[in-house]
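Exercise: predict the fold of this chain.
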Amino acid sequence: MKSLRFLPAVVLTFLSIGVFAQTKVDTIKVSGNCSMCKRTIETALKVPGVTTASWSPETKMLKVNYDAAKITNEEIQKKVAAAGYDTPKFKAPDEVYDKLHGCCQYDREGAEKLPVKAGKKH
């Protein structure tokens, strides 16, 4: 009978975990060409809040699972653009794009250009 007193507390604990976790899954178009692009794009998203990131060279689509309480879709797109790859909202800085390996330099479309932070070298 004593164990039944703790049952509501245990149930509430498990329910609260689901309430506070704001896990989202988004699919974002990301320009790129090859497996080297895939590695760079996915590595750029090894940041707090992103659970998984998988980019397909065939479809040019990035599937990303993330905690919306820690990072936004816009911040994710900025990180990808900062790595040299255009997204629907942000265009990679020309200086970063120009440093990509030749096979990774894709045909560019219009998007808002992300400013480059001075002092960061690859």
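Check your answer against the key: The chain has one domain: 22-113.
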